Every structure is written in structure tokens, then in C-alpha cells.
Amino acid sequence: MQQGFERACQGERQVIFITGEIGIGKSALTDTLTTQIAAMETARIGRGQCVDQYGAGEAYLPVLESLSQLCGSPENDLLIRLLRQYAPSWLLHMPALLSDTEYDTLQRRHGGATRERMLRELTEALEVLTVDKPLVLVLEDLHWSDVSTLDWLAYVARRRATARLLILGTYRPVDAIVRQHPVRAVTQELQVHGHCMELNLPYLSDSGVAAYVYQRFGESAELLALASVLNQRAGGNPLFLVNMLDALVRQGMLREAQHGWVLAEDPHGIHVQMPESLRRLVEQYVDQLETPEQTLLEIASVMGREFVTAAVAMSMGETIETVETICTALARRGQFIESYGVTEWPNETIVARYRFIHDLYREVVYQRIPASQQARWHRQLGLCLENGYRTQVHTMAAELADHFMRGREFSKAVQYLSLAGENALRRYAYQEAIAHLQRGLALLTSLPATLTRLQQELIFQTTLGPVFITVKGEASSEVEQTYTRARELCRELGGTPQRFPVLMGLLRCYVTRGNHGPAQQLAEEFLHQAQHSQDSALLVEAHLARGIAAFCFGDLLLAREHLEQSLAFYDPCQHRDHWTHYARDPNVVGHGLLAWTLWALGYADQAEALMRQALNLAEELTHPASLAFTRNLAAGLCQRRREVQETQAYAESTLALASDLGLSP
Questions:
Q1: Domain boundaries, given as residue ranges, for the chain
Q2: CA-CA distance, 468 to 512, in Å (whole number)?
Q3: Most buried of the four, 35, 223, 504, 593, by CB within 10 Å?
Q4: Long-range residue pairs from 465-468, CB within 8 A, at least 24 positions apart, any chain
Q5: CA–CA separation, 627 vs 616, rounded Å?
Q6: What are the C-alpha distances in Å from 555 to residues 504, 520, 547, 562, 596?
């Protein structure tokens, strides 16, 4: 645009159309340029605004507004004299600039001017006006303009005469397409023949959003995180971004402190309510859509930011082809959604994927749906996805759980929350695992009190226990409460296999707290039951439990005996997944604790070799909790060996691993 102004100053008329979605920054861009030009005092500037009008609208409205603005400048007399001489028919449309006598005289002489004469008159008048100084005209929101204004723009753009003239026109392509407004066709025709340029403004990039946040609030790590969170919500739309930041300031979530701006809470936990003005604006756009388009978007919003056409088609009662036709039309217009590729479901259905351009669009559309309709569509979409993924439903357990919970299919929601918790645990996403499992436990209370519900609760508790051991620590109240409740369930249900991990969980809690009696009792109970069953998997854990208790309470010889037996029973092929039930790998823990035991008994070389072996096993296993536990043991052993650098290295690596994964250090 700056280059366009420079060319206009050299006598090369320029017509530039600036296009982009609502809030993308068209007005801000023209404001910046005109402010810079005004500061240089090298050009005249006029602005006109189109408005949303019923019917055909007032002819030449933005052009007349810009002329009135120019005539209100200190050069009033000059401009009126030029218009009287070169464009008298235009003065008739600005009676406030004339006396009654002058108006009557002009009316008699030029009242019957034709369209062609009016186009020619104003163009020639403006060309004369630019002889001594360049002229910049800004015509905003041309998607609402009258046809006469577009005719004049096209006439000016096609003129070959020299003129130091820059015309900046802004419009929203989506509005033009929806309204079938001719501005789009006019600009395309002018562009084909080289009579104008079009500047389509893109969304802000991540770096652009960060730059704006930094410029307004300063630089800090938490503000960088905030910029990332807000950009996910705003989708790079400057208007949405600015409004959300303003809302945070108003709510006190973002406030100015002594040393700069600070956030009141973690940026990833912030939920920004959409300002009411933006909500109304988006709702207006939704209301302009045809009914099938509105229904499609509503069902799509139930699926989330991203959606697939097959699931939407089922809930709409339409064919996939019909839904994809509507989606293609909306995406081509840049309206609400955009194409997001193609995917194949496990049942071999090929489905097109789309997503909302902004999450804010999805939010507004979703909140328009009545609660009963939301529940019905969530239930239908859950069943559709369940059928589409068949034997691979576990891969999207969290999404299915959410649909069935919102669809009030609580029994299915509980089932998928359990799967989602297990999935998160296998990915070492401990906080997510806790969230899924606790939601499942809360939801269980809405189901009838049956034997099945007790069994489901036991599964949740025994899955949650190892997670709490890892994240909260063995002595935490969460660990004790979880395993105490699980033990009660085991007693109610009878001889369940889950009772063994439960005994181990309580044992670790009591040992860490120094509760000697209960810990010894649990260890002996566990060992007795394991020996009675002669199950090698149980014997591994039972001897480990007895060894842990003996070591922590000072019986080193007994500890050595049971730790060695635990390692002897361990089979990597059979027992490698024990950490999912017992929080840590028994082979790694056994080697590490036996190393400490041998050190205390005076076998320093054997202890060092065993600890090295424990570290190697933990690295191979790639289980973060077992690795952190072993590095912590290694740090303690190095400390006792007076190995300062090694102690520091193991301690720092343990803390770093714990911090990265949200573990209890």
C-alpha cells in the first residue's frame, strides 16, 4: 500500500481493494496508512463508509461522504469551486455546502444530469484536484455499497489520464458472496485487465500474535504461553484477539503490576468468555445462512472444532454427498469452516474432514442449540463414531466418553472414561489419566447400585492408585484413600485379582509413613496369599513387598533374602507390564533396593554393580516413574560414596524428569 501511494504521487492512479474476513484488520491497515500520510501533510484524504441498507441503498453514499469530509477541511473554498466548475451535478447532492439561491440555480441548470455525465464530472474534478497535491480516498465496506458507487470506481480505474490519485476500497468476500453483491465481480474484472490490485489480508501467524501481545503487555514466558492459547481460540483473527485480551484485562485476569503485566493464573487454564458484541456479530452471520447450512454447522459444532462429514450426515438424515456439497460451498466462500483433508475409518468408510475456522465460531453455533437437541446429537454422533471405529474404539475413548456423557448415556460414558484413563496412563500423561478416572468415578454415582457398578468402581480405583503414587507420592492422602476404598470393594466382591495391587499400594503408603505394624501385616498377608497360589507374577510382587518392608524397618538380611527371591521369580516376557498395576517395574525397583541393602551390609562393589544394572534396566524399560525412582536411588547411593558430581547429576536429572512429567519428586 505504501508503494501504491508512492506511485500515485508520481501521477500513476492506483485503485487497491483490501479484502479479508471480519476483524482481520482492513480498517486498521487503512487507518495506519492514512495517519502516516496525514502526518506528512503531503496529500488530501477523504473517507467514506458504506452501511448495511435495505433495498438498493442510497446512490454514491460513500463517495458523497468522502467529498463532504474533504469539503469540511481548511480548503473548503477551493474544493467547492472545483466541484462547481467541473462537477456541478454532485454539488446538488451536498446542499449543506450551498445557499438556497445557489442550490436553485444549480438545480435549474444541472438537475437532469445523466449517469454517464455524473461519472465523468466527478472523475475530472478529482483529477484536477490532484494537480497540486495527491488525493487519497478510502471507501470502506464495499460489500454493502450501492451499484452506482461500484460503477464510479470501475470508471475511475479504467481512465488512462494522469492523476495523482489513490483509492483504497475494503470489503469482506464472504459477505459479498452470500449477498451476491457485484463488488466481487467488479474487482475481478478490473484485476484481469490490470486496472486495480487486490490485497487479501491473511490471519495473524503465531509470531504475529506474540508480537502484538509483547508490544502491548511486554515480554515474559507466561505472556508467550498466553499468546499461544489465545491464538488457538482466535485463529489469528485480530479483532477476536484484541477483544479477548480486553476481556482479560476487564476481568482482572491480566493486570499491571509493579514490574509489568502479569496473569492471575496459569495461561493454559484461562477460559475467555466471548465478548457479547462479537457473539452478536457471529450470530448475525449464522442467521443469514440457509436452514440446511445452519443445521449442518450446529451438528458439526457438537463434534468439536474438527468434524467428519459421515457423522454429520447420519445425524442430519442426509447422504454424505449432500453434506459434502454444503461443506464445500461454505469452505469455498471462506464461511465458518475450511477443508481439513480426508480420512478413512477402520470400517473402510472414506470421510472428508473439515474444521471451524475459529473455535469462537463453533462456540457461538453450539450455544444456539437447545439442551435436549444437544444431548440427542451427542448420543447419535457417539454411536456413529463407535460403529465407524469398531474394534479400534479405544483409540478415541476420550472423545466417545465426552459424547456419551453429554448425550446422557452414562453407562457407555463410564466405559470409555475407563479406557481413556488407561490410554493416558500408557502414554505417561498422568494428569489426564487422573481427570478421566475421577470423572468416571463421579459419573458412577448416577448409575444403579449393582454388582456391576461395584466392579467398575474397583477398576477405576485400582487404575487411579498407581497414578496417585506417581504424581502425589506414596504417603499422600490420595493414595491412602484410593487404596482403602479399593480394599473395601475387594472385600465386598470377594476374591478379586485386584486385591494384590491394592495390598501393595497400601503397603507402600504405610512404609513411607513409618507405620511399622500395618505395613508388616500387609506384607505377610500378601506373601502368604502369593505362596498359596504359586502364581509367579504374585510371588514377584509379594517378595518385593516383604523386602521393601524389611529394608525400611532395618532388617537388612531379611530384606536381601526377599529382594533376591523377587528378582529370581521375575520373567521379562511375563511381568514387563507390572508397572501399570503396581506403579513401578518390580525388576528395576528390586535391583535398586537390593543395591542399597548390599551397601548397608558392606558389599560396596556389588551395590555399585547392581545400581548400574538397575539404571540400565530403567532406561531400557522407558517407564518414567521407574526411571525417576531409580535415578533417585542412584543419587542417594552416590552421596554415601562421597561422589559429589555424580550425586548432583542424578539428582538434577531426577528433578528434571519429575518436572517434565508432573511427577512427585
A1: 2-200, 206-269, 371-430, 448-583, 584-665
A2: 14
A3: 504
A4: 465/501, 465/502, 465/505, 465/583, 466/425, 466/501, 466/505, 466/579, 466/580, 466/581, 466/582, 466/583, 467/425, 467/430, 467/433, 467/434, 467/437, 468/434
A5: 9
A6: 19, 12, 9, 11, 13
Q: What distance in Å separates the CA atoms of residue 421 and residue 419, rounded to the nearest whole number?
A: 5
Kindly report whether the global pTM for this prediction surpasses the value 0.85: no
The answer to whether domain 584-665 has CATH 1.25.40.10 is yes
The whole-angstrom separation of Cα 472 and Cα 269 is 20
At 115-174, the pLDDT tens digits run: 788 888 888 988 888 888 899 999 988 988 888 889 999 999 999 888 999 999 998 887
CB 206 within 8 A of CB 235: no
User: Is residue 237's pLDDT more than 80?
Assistant: no
Cβ neighbors of 50 (< 8 A, separation 6 or more) are 61, 62, 139, 140, 141, 142, 143, 144, 145, 146, 149
Which H or E run contains 138?
strand 135-140
- Integer Cα distance of 529 and 527 in angstroms: 6
The C-alpha cell at 73 is 477541511
Check if the beta carbon of residue 509 is closer than 8 Å to that of residue 479.
yes
Instruction: Examine domains 2-200 and 584-665 and report if their fold is the same.
Output: no
How is residue 312 written as a grid cell? 454429520
Q: Could you tell me whether strands 254-257 and 260-263 are parallel, antiparallel, or unpaired per DSSP bridges?
A: antiparallel
**Spatial separation of the C-alpha atoms in residues 29 and 17, rounded to whole Å:** 12
CATH, domain range 2-200 = 3.40.50.300
Give buried/exposed letters for 134-157 (b at 16+ CB in 10 A, else e): bbbbbbbbbbbbbebbbbbbbbbb
- Contact criterion met (CB below 8 Å) for 527 and 546: yes
The three cell numbers locating residue 630: 531409580
Q: What average pLDDT does range 373-387 have in this prediction?
A: 92
- Tell which CATH architecture fits domain 448-583: Alpha Horseshoe (1.25)
